[in-house]
Amino acid sequence: MAGESGDGPVATREGIPRPRIQTLTDLIFGLALSIGAIELLSEKPVNLVGLAASILGFGWSFTILALVWVRYTRVMSVLPVETGGMIGVNMLLLFLVSIEPYLYNLITISFVSLPGQLDSETTTALYAVDMAAIFLIIAYFTHGLTIEEKKLIPKELLRSYKLQRNTTVASSAIFLFSTLPIFWSVAFLGMQTRFILWMCTFVVWIVRRGLEGRMK
Predict the structure, then answer these.
(1) Is the distance from CB of 54 to CB of 43 less than 8 angstroms?
(2) How far apart are CA 83 and CA 18, in angstroms?
(3) Which of 61, 113, 120, 167: disulfide with 208, CB 3.0–4.6 Å?
(4) Which tens digits make up the pLDDT trace of 15-56?
(5) 3 in any annotated domain
(6) Domain that holds residue 90
(7) If DSSP states are collapsed to H, E and C, what string results for the chain?
(8) Please, which residues bridge with residue 188 across strands?
(9) Number of domains the chain is built from
(10) Is 205 within a domain?
(11) What interhelical angle do 48-76 and 18-42 show, nearest 10?
């Protein structure tokens, strides 16, 4: 019998049912988005400019996590992740997602100059590293779908998923590249170039959507 030969018993003992993984994933992403909303409630803007800045900041965090969740969900609906090292990588991703609101809140706090706290250059660099790692893991998962020998997706979708993998790696590289000190010390139109580079990840997403449309 299959369960009595080979690695059958080991796979059964070590495996985690996919519904359990999906439930945990949805919980982590939901908590991360909820924490961002709670932090928004704790802020007390004194004017419309402060209100707009708070909403835009929350909008950034919400949008970036939502896009990661959508990409992750689509990949995981096909990619086997119930056993082996994939579970470990999946848990690492969820950890990185769970600390995103905390790191983003550190950025907000760091703009209020207080003794003994991390400065804005450091907090933004830490956030960028976290986002770079998240995107890199998503790219790794997407790459798993592009391996033709596994036949996880139809051949006609391979080009699209390879494009998604490559653009996700590009987004990861942008975040990591932005940690260089020069991108904090140099500003453009009153904004640090580090933030401008972050916004370029949305440009990458728009370009990818355009290219996918041409493929179809």
Answers:
(1) yes
(2) 9
(3) 167
(4) 566 677 778 888 888 888 888 777 766 666 677 877 787 788
(5) no
(6) 16-215
(7) CHHHCCCHHHHHHHCCCHHHHHHHHHHHHHHHHHHHHHHHHHCCCCCHHHHHHHHHHHHHHHHHHHHHHHHHHHHHCCCCCCCCHHHHHHHHHHHHHHHHHHHHHHHHHHCCCCCCCCCHHHHHHHHHHHHHHHHHHHHHHHHHHCCHHHCCCCHHHHHHHHHHHHHHHHHHHHHHHCCCCHHHHCEECCEEHHHHHHHHHHHHHHHHHHHHHHHC
(8) 191
(9) 1
(10) yes
(11) 180
Closest CA to 150 of 61, 64, 86, 63: 86
Q: Are 127 and 121 in contact (CB under 8 A)?
A: no
Can you tell me the distance from the alpha carbon of 203 to that of 199, in angstroms, rounded to the nearest whole number?
Answer: 7
The span from the CA of 105 to the CA of 80, in Å, is 34
Give the pLDDT confidence of 166-179 residue by residue, as tens digits.
Answer: 999 999 999 999 99
Q: Residue 8: is its pLDDT beyond 70?
A: no
Show the tokens assigned to 128.
Answer: 């960028």
Tens digit of each residue's pLDDT (9 = 90 or more) over 176-210: 999 999 999 998 888 899 999 999 998 998 888 88
Q: Which residues contact 108 (CB under 8 A, 6 or more apart)?
A: 39, 43, 57
For tokens 């706290």, the residue is 117
- Domain contains 132: yes
Amino acid at residue number 30: G
